[in-house]
Protein: Vomeronasal 2 receptor 550
Organism: Monodelphis domestica
Amino acid sequence: MIGIFLSLFSVEVNSVTGAELFQSLPKSACKPYQWLHKNYQQALALLFAVEEINRDPHLLPNISLGFHLYNTYHSDERTLESSLRWLSGEDKLIPNYSCRKQDKSVAVIGGVTSALSIQMGTLLDLYKFPQISYGPFDSILSDKIQFPSLYQMAPKDSSLHQGLVHLMVYFKWNWIGLVATDDIRGEKFLWEIRKEMLKNDVCVSFTEKIPVSERGHMKSHEDFMTRILESPSEVIVIHGDADSLMILRYSQIPLFLIKKLWIGTSHWDITMRPVYRQGHNFHGALIFSYLISEVPGFKTFLRTVKPSKYPDDILLRGFWLSVFRCSDQLENEEQGICSPNASLETLPLCSFDMTMSGLSYTIYNTVYAVAWALHEIFLRKSEKNSMRDEGYLVFHSWQLHSFLKNTQFNNSAGDHMFVDEKRSSEARYAIMNYIFFPNETDALVKVGQFVPTAPLGEDFTICEDVIVWGWWKSQVPRGVCSESCGPGLRKISLEGQVTCCYDCSPCPEGEISSQLNADQCKKCPEDKYPNEQRDRCLSKAVTFLTVKEPLGMTLTCMAVSFSLLTALVLGVFVKFQDTPIVKANNRTLSYTLLISLIFCFLCSLLFIGHPTTATCLLRQTVFAVVFTVAVSSILAKTIIVVVAFRGIRPGSRIRMFMHPRMSVYVVLICSGLQVTLCGIWLGTSPPFPEADTHSEYAHIIIRCNEGSVFAFYSVLGYIAFLALGSFTVAFLARNLPDAFNEAKFITFSMLVFCSVWVSFLPTYQSTKGKAMVAVEIFSILASSAGLLACIFIPKCYVILLKPDRNTQRQIKNK
């Protein structure tokens, strides 16, 4: 005989206050027994296994296997009462005494929860009775020092939390509520899943612990359900067994639809509820149930179960009356039972399931484990004793331990089973979708699976298109604390909040984010820039002042035109070199000045086009030298005018400077100093081409880096010094009387020259890219044109248009 404890009835305990405690009989605190209809499949699985074993000629031959069936309640007192009743063998509880004439009870199958297994094990271990738990695997029960007589047949749930987090990550949920039983197993689950959630950046919205006592259920379900319904999270994971989650089964859930997605674990039967309660509040729930192999013949057996098949089974009769809602006919023996031809297959899912549950499968294997252990012990005894002597059938229950812990077998479904917990297999899970149809029927549909032992990438599979979500939406529920930050945005942590709760902020200037929920924005490479949405980098356009664009073409035309005009003026001076006005103003200096102005105009062309090493070296140095020659020539002209008029006075010391080559010396000395400065510049820190990626947005400017800024401004400063000197001398000599005096024209030319370059400095510093180059070219052309216009145009006007004024007689008359 096998003793088996199943949870077939529940007792609803009323909440009793201290004032009401002694105002009624104790029994009135408990409501009548209520059938847990779905659990009756476990009793039928037990019956099916026993009948199979008794029909098998190779397993326990000539021996019949039977069982004593007891109900367990979710309370310490009732569990101990049932255990003592089984040990005594009678209705009376007599500790340490068995009323059975010939005790052939060998083992106990029981413990739908860890708490019940511990309560039973504490008592049964006193008598060394083997106890095999069919409830969820608990590592605490594997401690053979504390529970030496207890075995577990359920697969290990050590990977369940990983499967749940896989589901969260797949649907991008990161704001999850956790509900677990208030016991050691629940604490272990919470610790494991929190750790796994932390690895995958999933946050816990709230944690609720379910009390495990019946009175605690009825006392706290109102507060419990209120807290869940008011929680901000739409996705809630529930871990516990069917008995522990009685609070959800019998709680007064509001009539309005609950906008929550429930994710249940393997031992919570979400379909198990009173018939008068609808399951629409759990519509769309996802359940991780055991993925088990189908036991051949079990469904056929269930279809044939009827009270007429087992007329002596009063338990089946009571179940039949309750599940088919018959009136109580137990007192009327003559009246036939109602619905005698009905089938369990017609019952709704909330009352009975034709598919073998995980607990029924474990009970089925547990019965076979005991049978194989008995078969082995009888086989050993039969080798020593004669088969005719029935003494080999007599043994003590404690002798079964050595055989039971080594038992292994292949069941009819093809699975290899072990009783040793160390060799137990890892649980595999089918992901089921609970659907409650409008016609008040419900179903569980497989939408995926999680097999921890499968290769990485193949362990978790889900068919999203098949899943039916809750009534309130047809798409995947929003299981996040904050909406995702799209591309171009970054997450901003909220003070005092978890990492899953954040605000979104646009990326700073020059940075992008191309992914969802980016913690930080990143800068684009130097050759790229962010687009307007700041979600990707675009290649910058390479730019420089080219002759093909309007500005470059205009400046080029101006430079060539002015250089040709200067060459034309030079031609006029050469042609009319013997005229008084040309001779009076030092032809050599005029030729030198005009030639230098031609190069001044042409050197601006070095600033147009793609900068190269050669052009960068030449543009500033050539510009500095030719401008120095031009300004030096003007300075020499001015000095000659002053010397010419001051030197004619008797006893003047300036007469010593009246040397025919003095003007050449002035030009050579001044230009030589500038050449020296340029040589030092090129020798120490020469200009070079570079790509400027920061000055202009969305552009890479190819420009010349001056190398040494000090040298650049020193060269310009030297030219400014010469120009200021020429302006000062010319201004002082502007009123000297004679027709040959060109100091007035030089004064005006230097005024224009200085005005252009004084304006150039702030403008040059405030511009970037092509505009900076254009400013320098314009300054070169404007200052050169000013010198040409102020000094030579009046002379050309007289030479070409007023030749009568360009005669010796006319000059003498003045």
